[in-house]
Amino acid sequence: MNRSMRILILVTSPQQRAELQKRLESLMQIYLPELPIRFYFQEGVESDWCFVASDWPAFKKTVKRLRGRSHYITHVVSDRDEVPSEFLTGEIDGVTSEPYSDMELLTQLKAFQTAMQWQELSRVHQDMETSLGELQKDLAIAERLQQKRFPSRLPEVKGFDVVSRYLVGQRSGGDHFDLIKGKDHNGFSFYLTDASSYGLSSFVMGAMMRVAATVADGHTIQSAEVLERVSRELIGGLGEEDHLSVLYGIYRAQDRTLNYVSLGSSLLYVIRSDGKLDRLPTQGKPLQTSSGWTDVAGEEVQFFPEDRLLIVSDGILEGLGSRARFEKWVQANAELPPKKMVTEILFGIKERLEDEGFPPQDCSIMILGMRSNVLPLRKTKLRRVG
Q1: Which of 14, 48, 119, 240 has its CA 20 to 30 A from that of 355?
Q2: Domains observed in the chain
């Protein structure tokens, strides 16, 4: 305790009162020498420890009043008295007899300390429950705010079935993704960002939208060029400790080819129509102020009917335990339709959480499945685009 310990003695006999005070002071000097003590002798004072004698006026009513004002109540009785009924019913916490015994008072002191420790533990537990409740509310608010930055519904894309979902995580920062149609409606672009702070997440979204607005048609610009423009937008707003994973892709409908760049931890997969899972390579580390923009070359991959593009933030991998576990699950369930696959993946993440908790970090997933009625093209290998 930082303050002094308050001891209230309600004993009618002045001699007994003085004797009890003297013995308590002596015990305290031996066993709690660092703790200041203040004694009180009139009812109405809030105390840590109270001694009340059986002959104190209106004893029973006094005990009831003391229960809300004193943390621990010791009943002072004569050594000829029987065990007080108030002790058996729990109305008082302890008993000591007169004439006083140092051993008996020491026992009461130890019992008092134990009671105080339990009360402190209970208070800490209540404080933690309150804090956790407030944290859950804060996270729920953060989830609503974060989700408001996501498009309520991704646009329909010709020849594709599109499914996406998002779960808010506990860590600061956040994901953001979007799907943008080309002006000719035969292509599209998409991005997924994973930022180290909420402020950066909002800043990234604004930069991506400004750059996306400059792209006239998907086939007129390469993904690496888009990311270079984004980097120029971002560089002035990044803090020294900020880092940003960015995945950007442009799909050209005329040759059904995806041109993309992936920097950082977000991952891109292709689930082929035969169930084979291809993890597409990343091209570099997350964007940071210290490293600036480094020229990168995009990759290209061609799509065929019933192929599916799977885009995930690393929160999905962490939520399921590891990348290997995620890939093993997807490989084993490759036949699932996009909507069912997304639902099962998010269920697997929530199943690992305690109660109604949140995953460690934001979880974002998007699947674009090419429909079976799209005319096939000749297959090509992955190639780098300088």
Answers
A1: 119
A2: 5-123 (3.40.50.2300), 149-385 (3.60.40.10)
